[in-house]
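Lab notes, practical 5.
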Amino acid sequence: MLLANNISFYRNNNIIFKDVSLALPPQKIINITGANGIGKTTLLKILTHVLIPKKGNIFWNGKNIKKNLFNYYKDVTFVMDKQTSNINLSVIENIFFWKKLFSSIISKKEIDAILDLLSLDSYRNTPINYLSNGEIKKLELTRLVIERKKLWMLDEPYIGLDIETINLLNETFINHTKSGGMIIFSSHYVPDIPNIENLQLENYAQR
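Output from the prediction step:
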């Protein structure tokens, strides 16, 4: 379970949000909602220990992540809104790089099936800088299946996706939670999937 207690973040002495608390047990999804600039990405970065809050603590399976980062990161996949794939590599080269980096046991047959499902098979040998934003987003999302971790964190995962891929992502979310996984993401889009809770960040913003 992921727990965050009274998380507050300041920027240039200005309060971005204050006293955010959340609980994310297995089989649950949290969608962080709010206007642009409200701090959705900032909160996700705090939850992954990329940023340090002004106050508050985060716990993973009962242990403070500051004292348990190695084990925490073994269980977390963070897919950012910004591109992380290497533009100098092709689609398949990026996938095999991630496979090696995360010591994934995913098979070549499974990779082929994912590429086909995402309509990326014809681009497998294409360098990333020749892909559209939507195609790059699809590639970034393959990390969820490649890494196979318990806790998924995603920043605006639906941006740039067509309706077919949105439905596929929702189905992937549902299957992950059914198997005991947990998901927290930020989005303006509110998907119609079970076990989802909306965390409205405006409720914690400076007034």
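Observations recorded by the TA: The first helix runs from residue 40 to 47. The chain has two domains: 2-75+149-204, 90-147.
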